[in-house]
Amino acid sequence: MIPTGAIGNDSPILSRREFWYSRQLGLNLLSIREDPRFGTQKLELSDVVLGEPDAKLFTTPEGSEILDLRAPKQVAAPGTAPHKCFSGAARDGVSLGLTPIVVNVG
User: pTM to 2 decimals?
Assistant: First the structure.
């Protein structure tokens, strides 16, 4: 509650929050926030399916590869060939229309 006059209001401002929590899922299934300043906000989780997802959702499409961008970058020793670096997920740079940046290390 915001008391009368605290922010120039003529009467107290009451806001209400309501949560419906599922222990099994560890999530709020329903969250309602009512505040006269912002209106009513309602977030509802629906169409929940318990169980394992279809394995096809996690397969890499044919012709694609997975690049782990978290791996540390390898630095060449001085005097070796320069590296070509690309930003984005495509290693060859062609599929994203990127131009290689040549970096001389050393």
Answer: 0.46
